Amino acid sequence: MLDQLEQLKQEAVKEIAAVESLETLNDLRVKYLGKKGPMTEIMKQMGKLSAEERPKVGAVANEVREQLTSAIQEKQEELGAAEIKKQLANETIDVTLPGTTVKEGTAHLLTQVIEEIEDLFIGMGYTIAEGPEVEKDYYNFEALNLPKDHPARDMQDSFYITENTLLRTQTSPVQARVMEQHDFANGPIKIICPGKVYRRDNDDATHSHQFTQIEGLVVDENITLADLKGTLTVLAKKMFGEERDVRLRPSFFPFTEPSVEMDISCFKCGGEGCRVCKGTGWIEILGSGMVHPNVLEMSGIDSKKYSGFAFGMGPERVAMLKYAVDDIRHLYTNDLRFTKQFSVKE
To answer: One GO molecular-function annotation for this sequence (predicted)?
Structure first.
């Protein structure tokens, strides 16, 4: 039996030394030291030995078991270290290689236009006011001199959430809310209201069911139409060039009286007439007017003491005219070929 143990040790040590994977090494451990392995079989036969042979064989068997266990552990550490070394070699980063360029984003064209307009009006002492996009019918219509049976509602009755709430069709409700809460002891009202609005429009080259709007409002004592024209002239020259002329045409809006449309001289032809201005020499930009007394009174403002003007423009229209964008849908499709053209502010 001693010869059998010696032969087993030599055979096992040789196999352990030649093994090249942890999986195979584990198979050898089971093969030689497992419950059905030769070492276990030898230990089971110890009972058949004489009292003199049993201690000698037992001592050798334990020694062989310890040697094999130690050999397996050493080989396991060796293979583990080799595997880690191989993994590190495969995952090594070559720091001399050129790095991957991280592409920087840029503000969307609409965002650039809105921020440019905001900067202009903040410089003139205005503040930016915001309000909810899901608005009450009262603030979206009634507080703006559009009662429930008013025919002008037809073109704006759009996306209702409940009978008395809808997606706002304009940012004018923000003006109504500001006027309702304002205390003139703190000074006049001078605000602009940028934000998204929603209307039941056909989606085509010049219309969208969702778009952005910037409205402005000034309310104080002795505000006149001349103040409105002066303000809009500054806006036109800032956005389209110092050489722009401005004209106001009579119009109708339920929340202003008198109401006017503002045109600017065509920046393409200088007023001579071209395809952009449809041969007229003028381009319509926005609607405006003096705040209707009913709107002031519904907000708790004395219309005999205070007056004001309001205006509203679409940043999409400004962007399309200023940058010669021929389809409003380009502003919403997230096509990088389009948006990359406007990566630098003017």
So the answer is: ligase activity
125 lies in the same domain as 247: yes
- Structural domain range at position 17: 2-90
Which one, of 115, 7, 25, 22, lies nearest residue 64 by Cα? 7
With contact defined as beta carbons under 8 Å apart, do 110 and 331 qualify?
yes
Indicate if 86 and 117 belong to the same structural domain.
Answer: no
How many helices and strands in the chain, by DSSP H and E?
11, 10
What's the mean per-residue pLDDT of the chain? 86
Determine whether the annotation assigns residue 115 to a binding site. Answer: no
- Nearest Cα to Cα of residue 128 among 137, 139, 119: 119
Give one word for 41, left, alpha or beta, with left for phi > 0 and alpha for psi -120 to 50: alpha
pLDDT tens digits for range 52-80: 777 777 777 778 788 888 888 888 888 88
User: Coil, helix or strand for 52?
Assistant: coil
pLDDT for 304 equals: 95
Name the amino acid, one letter, at 296: L
Say whether both 159 and 71 belong to one domain. no
Backbone φ and ψ of 127, nearest 5°: -115, 160
Compute the C-alpha angle 189/190/192, nearest 5°: 125
β-strands 189-198, 165-167 pairing? unpaired
- What are phi and psi for residue 261, nearest 5 degrees? -100, 140
d(CA 196, CA 181): 23
Mean pLDDT of all residues in 192-197: 94
Tens-place pLDDT, residues 92-128: 777 787 878 887 778 889 999 999 999 999 999 999 9
Whether residues 309 and 169 share a domain: the answer is yes
Domain-embedded: residue 12: yes
